[in-house]
Amino acid sequence: MAVVDEPTTSPDIGGIGHRVRRHEDARLVEGQGNFVDDVVLPNMLHMAILRSPVAHARIKGIDTSAAEAVDGVVAVVTGSVMAQHGLAWMPTLSGDTQAVLATDKIRFQGQEVAAVVATDPYVAVDALELIDVDYDILPAITSPQQALADGAVLIRDDKEGQADNRVYEWEAGDRTATDAAFARADRVVSLSTHYPRSHPSPLETCGAVADVNSVTGQATIWLTSQAPHAHRTLFAMVAGLPEQNIRIISPDLGGGFGNKVPIYPGYVVATAASLLIGRPVKWIETRSENLISTGFARDYHMKGELALTSAGKILALRVEMLSDQGAFYADAQPTKFRAGLFHVVTGSYDYPAAHVVCSGAYTNKAPGGVAYRCSFRITEASFLIERLVQTAAYELGIDPAEMRFKNFIQPDQFPYQSPTGFVYDSGDYPNALRTALDEVGYERLREQQIAARAEGRLLGIGIAHFTEAVGAGPSKQYDIAGLKMIDSAELRVHPTGKAILKLGVKAQGQGHETTFAQIVAEQLGIPVSDIKVEEGDTDNTPYGLGTYGSRSTPVGGAATAVVARKVADKAKLIAANLMEAAPDDIELQNGRLFVRGTPDRSVTIQDVALAAYSNVPEGLEYGLEDVHYYDPPNLTYPYGAYVVVVEVDPETGIWKVQRLVALDDCGVRINPMIVEGQIHGGLTEGFAMSSMQWITFDEEGNCIGSNFTDYLVPTAWETPRFELLASCTPSPHHPIGAKGVGESATVGSPAAFVNAVIDAVAHLGIRNIDMPLLPDRVWAAIHSAAG
Ligand code: CDP
């Protein structure tokens, strides 16, 4: 493990490792961004969606006549109108089907029932109230346990052959070896816990502006999309439009966090309405619509068991997980992995056997399971193993840090094959945890904890060590809806030495316009300020699967490095011609191409760029550009060690964070400042999950959390101060040694917060309090333990 390397390029070039200020910020903070809602087209209509007030009901009839009669209403679209065009149902990115507008039944509160298209957005919303829907209410199923119980009412009676509410049953690992390890264990420690349902709630809600030209058949659709290319292909499949006639433009996005990966009915209805009416149609979701009906996250009921020796060595892990998927399996999971990459649940520890059984159930809730700032269900996995290791430490009377040191995968074990089939690329876990513990003063804190208890104060020290698996992914294993999870970069250097880089990924605020330019600057020596980065317009960027699950840097960043190297190779041929030297003797450093051994004989990359269009060697094509589609050989495995110190008030159950030390290792950091920003965001979300953020439902399936009064997200006021540390173990197979980081802190930190609170009360025999750790829950646990 090294500390972060010094940059090799000069600050004016600004390659890898420079804290370059984000190019995009000037535009975004000065109100010059271009979001979907900023798109205004001539003759544009506005659409509003009628959503079901009930969670489960049969539709007996829909009367739209009063709404149609309103002045300004152009059309009212129902499921039966969509059905006439074969669009009442659509495929999901997880291989299920989803109602676009309900025709037969309502399956969750907030489900799309009808849409009004009008000349004015307020007229459209007002007319919704005049649509009369006759519902025959059915009992609502609000938990996966209820869904899978004998005799439960069938939610997906639309699906042929679906006899119960089971979405999937999936397993990983080796059951026999795991059972054998449990049979010879000295101790078995178990923990049942629930990772609650939450919502990514980006600042910008979802929306679309669809402009379908009925004469040319050209459909231009501005969409809040984290994956514009994949969405274009799915649109072609759903709507039967020729793919070359569909142009998806995902402009600036006000956050996504996984919420903008699924295809939502609103997108499809707006497009269909534009096609049928022959005018552009805009649909922008309200905050409540976004919270009630778009992609939820988490909602995993998990039971984990560790087989242990009495000395605390882990022999095996057994996990049973039950997921609440909502009414449609509508997130986006790689097809081979029904519960995402949850089987990375073995964590940062070395043991020979594990067995994981995952089940998913349909319930009368909005479709859920999006990768909310995490890579395909790894947040839940990381939470379970870290809570479990902590529990085992208390049960065996071993210090929680010591418990981890006893079981860590050691640096010389990489590449490490996990018992559920992952090949971790690199890391130095003991050093990471030791560094974080030293920073926080762990031994001294343990002494202070004992002294505090004597005074009736509850001090807790929580640890989490996580390993993520990001950068999906190798084509041999990873596809979504059949599309391999490759990504691409196209680089064109202009005659004046300036460049444009076009990508298949799509930022939602991560700073791609800066960091991807830095990768090119590193390879070619073109100053970062001379490189324009373009994403999101499917007509003008190469194909890719988009941005989620920290895949931009591991996959799109790798594609960028490789395409820049291809361009550099051509630049060397041109430079060799200009200097009358052998191409193999040309070196490129800091923007200068020189003959090896004689640095005085050189030309600049800008000289070469001009020559590429004016003076190329015989037989070489003019121009200086290339494209690369990158198929990663493996995922990358960022990791980190987090330590949280809290004090719990025994009288109120309120807990306050005193310190948070976060060490993150994402290999080579392209822009350390942006990485730190990403980690700050992730830590804040981890704090949110552990302290306040959850979506609940009453027994009729009404969603509690349709606004920011019921669904709490932390502000700067509540958020604790973070102390960040870094280490660097480059990924050996990645072209620039970088690993992803976008989601790491959200994955790693919730367990650290919860472990800290549990650590404060563990001496009372308390082993678990489910998230979020609301003061009344903590208070009740303390008081019931006290007897
Ligand atoms: O896919 P997404 O952009 O959300 O995640 P990521 O690529 O893992 O990381 C988020 C951002 O952090 C990237 O877009 C880069 O701007 C930056 N980053 C970096 O500078 N160095 C790394 N090794 C990883 C990420």
Question: Can you give keywords for this protein?
Answer:
single chain, 787 residues, seven-stranded mixed beta sheet, five-stranded mixed beta sheet, globular
Radius of gyration: 27 Å
- Most strands sheet: 7 strands, mixed
- Based on Cα principal axes, name the global outline: globular
Number of DSSP-assigned strands: 34
Structural category is: alpha+beta
Strand percentage: 25-35%
Mean pLDDT: 96
N→C terminal distance: 48 Å
* Tally of contiguous helical segments: 19
Small molecules in complex: cytidine-5'-diphosphate
Low-confidence stretches: none
Give me the side-by-side strand order of the main sheet.
3-7-1-14-11-12-13
Q: Which percent range fits the helix content?
A: 25-40%
Description:
By secondary structure, this protein is α+β, with helices and mostly antiparallel strands. It contains 19 helices and 34 strands. The chain has a seven-stranded mixed sheet with strand order 3-7-1-14-11-12-13. It has a five-stranded mixed sheet with strand order 9-17-16-15-10. A four-stranded mixed sheet has the order 20-30-31-34. Helix 15 (552-579) packs across helix 16. The longest helix is centred in the last third of the chain and has 28 residues, at 552-579. The model has no long low-confidence stretch (mean pLDDT 96).
